[in-house]
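Deliverable D4.2, example record:
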Amino acid sequence: MLGYIQSPIRGETDRILAELAQHMRPNVAALVSPDPEDHLLVHLWPADLRWPIRQDLGTGAASCTLDGGALEEAVFRLSQDVAKLPPATPLILNKFGKQEAEGRGVRPLIAQAIEDGRPVLLGVPAHTEAAFHAFAAPLAQKLELDIHALEAFLRG
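Output generated by the structure prediction step:
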């Protein structure tokens, strides 16, 4: 089972997924953004770690950017934890973003979870939706932005 959500409202998908992961603890594995204002910080469960995935470009830079290596470390850490969980434990991932569209990021973790029979839920921004469908079709199911319906999906 592979479900995904989208929202035109910036930060709403992150908020819903983080809230759902928090609500389903300890019966879930997750890599979510706990702060809609800081999408370059992820929270890993079940380890309960906050993991920065930003590359600090210094004080003169206009903004920070994603550190692909830090994201890969977070995914590796979570994949180790997921391997120790019962096969039916759901997996919530913050998004199928640019890294995933290019074949990196959480993409291997999604594939492994599906192979293991785990339900997977993630956010898919509009700009990576075509790449997501190329990767996930026909398994992908678009779901309503309703926390109760999402929980029911993950519980099977």
